Structure formats: C-alpha cells, structure tokens
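Structure first, sequence second, as always.
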C-alpha cells in the first residue's frame, strides 16, 4: 500500500508487567494518555474484542476501531472505518523487574488524505512518545 507510515516507539517502565498492564488495558482511559484521542464510545464487547468509535483530534474525525486484548501481552487496535486505515499495537515485554512498553503503528490516511500520511507521521510519533512518557509517569509515581 502506498503511503503507509510505520511508527515505532518504546519506553522502559520500572514496574512489573502486571502493574503496567493494569493501566494500559484500561481502554477507556486512553484519552488521558493519548492526546490525539479526544473521546471513545464503546459499541460492543465480545470476549476479548471491543468495537468502538473514537473521535480523534485531527479534524474531530470519527474512526471505528476493533480492539483485541491479549491479556498481559498486547493490545491490537485495528482502524476499520474513518480517516485512518491500519493498526496500532501496544506490546508489553517483561524485562526482569521492569517492563518495556512498545507502541507500533502501521497506518495511512484514507482516500485523498493519503498524500498527507507523511505529515501526520511525525505528529503520531511525538504523540506516541508523549503517551508512553505519561503512562510511565502514572505507573512510577
């Protein structure tokens, strides 16, 4: 696919994977850490999968997402409708007493907006770094 942007960012948190998971798996608290996410409306939940509507800051756009939670390992967010196409994956990698938290985006803007994917890439990257920092602060406080 043309214009796909892959963004990877990670941070090491001085806490167990359980403690990190407690914060990261609270899907409704996402706007608290991820500044690009304005609001979340859960539509349905089936097993470990949640379907939700997310309003993002970029032009107040609404996106549909399917979120699959693999307890204490990862959260896979798939953008299914809206201005963003692709995925955002949050991984937990236990490292002894610490936990590495990794966020990987593989996204592009849909339709005519595709040509702006490169421009939003740096916004997503800085937003992701900010989110990981604030998750780390919340956990280590």
């Amino acid at each position: 696919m043309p214009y796909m942007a892959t963004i990877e960012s990670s941070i090491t948190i001085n806490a167990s994977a359980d403690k990190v998971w407690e914060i990261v798996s609270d899907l409704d608290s996402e706007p608290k850490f991820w500044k690009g996410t304005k609001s979340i409306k859960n539509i349905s939940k089936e097993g470990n999968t949640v379907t939700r509507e997310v309003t993002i800051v970029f032009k107040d756009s609404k996106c549909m997402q399917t979120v699959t939670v693999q307890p204490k390992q990862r959260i896979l967010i798939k953008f299914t409708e809206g201005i963003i196409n692709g995925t955002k994956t949050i991984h937990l990698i236990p490292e002894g007493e610490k936990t590495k938290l990794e966020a990987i985006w593989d996204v592009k803007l849909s339709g005519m907006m595709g040509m702006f994917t490169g421009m939003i890439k740096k916004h997503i990257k800085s937003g992701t770094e900010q989110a990981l920092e604030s998750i780390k602060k919340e956990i280590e406080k």
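Margin note: Residues 117-140 form the longest helix (24 residues).
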